[in-house]
């Protein structure tokens, strides 16, 4: 081997005892430590997208503002009116005294003042998503239906010709408010019904269900997942007329009052009154269904759960007569009227704060 060849190859020798091995140049280069100035063999760079602007824009959308407004309004209302909700539930399901004053005294004597807020923790957890979903769904469906009606008017809707007869299909006879109210009640009920079951169990039988965790465990052990949807069918049946009437009455009363006073919107005291009247009307119309619903949901606690809504109504009439269908109606109105008025007042106030676009009547 020539000297020049040896000099070029000598740095590639590795000595192991009495043996010498020639290391390929490529491997030899990999063994050299990287200097601060030598280029790296490769590098991976991950570009994390900046989500601040999309998130900020999303939070400023009308739908998110209405959703949050409903949640905040529901939470504030329930915190104030929890004692009335407790008394109302006891009267409806037939626990203890049959009048408001007697039920109030019984709760104080048996559980103390904190008994008036029995189940309020789960009630708050229930009302926040329920009110948010309900009001958010109502606003979204109402806008969608109104927009659909306007588009159908522009294109005059689809037509069907049968011989010499022309049939025009129109959405003008459909009330967007009524459809939106029905959709709001159904969607919120399907989403949050298990929380309603837990709330009623904690309110009616705090000795059997002293905490939320015990209530969840016991209900699941007794009936599985289906037990959390006890009374769902009558709830949906009862919710449909209530929710439809409730939102329809509020919107119509608000619009009629503003037109008579030649003003664009209600002030806070007017919202309180209009909301209370809407709640009173809807509750009065659907109250017998509410009685049947409550009986089905908590009847198992007394060992005599009716099979269906018709059976529950028949049982009430048989035991208490027709007046039994409105047992607890006074307490219900006492709770529903201020709750409805306060909810709408808080809701509209939060919308004015959270929505970028100001509300237009």
TrEMBL record:
Its main location: membrane. GO terms for biological process: transmembrane transport. The keyword Transport applies. InterPro entries: MCP (IPR002067), MCP_dom_sf (IPR023395), MCP_transmembrane (IPR018108). Keywords: Membrane, Repeat, Transmembrane, Transmembrane helix, Transport. It is found in: Membrane. Solcar repeats lie at residues 61-144, 172-256, 266-353. The chain crosses the membrane at residues 227-250, 271-289. PROSITE patterns: SOLCAR. It holds the Pfam family Mito_carr. It is a multi-pass membrane protein. GO terms for cellular component: membrane. Belongs to the mitochondrial carrier (TC 2.A.29) family. This is Mitochondrial adenine nucleotide transporter BTL1.
């Amino acid at each position: 081997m020539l000297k020049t060849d040896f000099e070029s190859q000598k740095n590639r020798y590795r000595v192991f005892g009495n043996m010498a091995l020639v290391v390929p140049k490529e491997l030899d280069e990999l063994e050299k430590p990287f200097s601060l100035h030598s280029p790296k063999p490769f590098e991976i760079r991950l570009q994390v997208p900046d989500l601040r602007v999309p998130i900020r824009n999303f939070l400023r959308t009308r739908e998110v503002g209405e959703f949050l407004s409903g949640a905040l309004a529901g939470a504030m209302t329930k915190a104030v009116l929890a004692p009335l909700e407790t008394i109302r539930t006891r009267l409806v399901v037939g626990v203890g005294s049959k009048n408001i004053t007697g039920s109030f005294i019984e709760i104080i004597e048996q559980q103390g003042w904190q008994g008036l807020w029995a189940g309020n923790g789960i009630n708050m957890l229930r009302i926040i998503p329920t009110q948010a979903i309900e009001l958010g769904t109502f606003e979204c469906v109402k806008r969608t239906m109104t927009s659909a009606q306007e588009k159908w008017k522009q294109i005059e809707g689809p037509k069907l010709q049968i011989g010499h007869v022309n049939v025009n299909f129109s959405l003008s006879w459909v009330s967007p408010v009524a459809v939106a109210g029905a959709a709001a009640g159904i969607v919120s009920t399907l989403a949050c019904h298990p929380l309603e079951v837990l709330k009623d169990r904690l309110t009616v039988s705090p000795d059997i269900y002293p905490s939320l965790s015990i209530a969840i465990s016991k209900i699941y052990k007794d009936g599985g997942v289906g037990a959390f949807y006890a009374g769902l069918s009558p709830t949906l049946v009862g919710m449909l007329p209530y929710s439809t009437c409730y939102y329809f009455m509020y919107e119509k009363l608000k619009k009629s009052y503003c037109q008579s006073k030649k003003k664009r919107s209600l002030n806070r005291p007017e919202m309180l009154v209009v909301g209370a009247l809407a709640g009173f009307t809807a509750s009065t119309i659907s109250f017998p269904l509410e009685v049947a619903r409550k009986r089905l949901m908590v009847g198992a606690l007394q060992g005599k759960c009716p099979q269906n809504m018709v059976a529950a109504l028949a049982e009430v009439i048989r035991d208490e007569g027709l007046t039994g269908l409105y047992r607890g109606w006074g307490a219900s109105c006492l709770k529903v009227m201020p709750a409805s008025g306060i909810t709408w007042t808080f809701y509209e106030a939060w919308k004015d704060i959270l929505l970028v676009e100001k509300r237009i009547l």
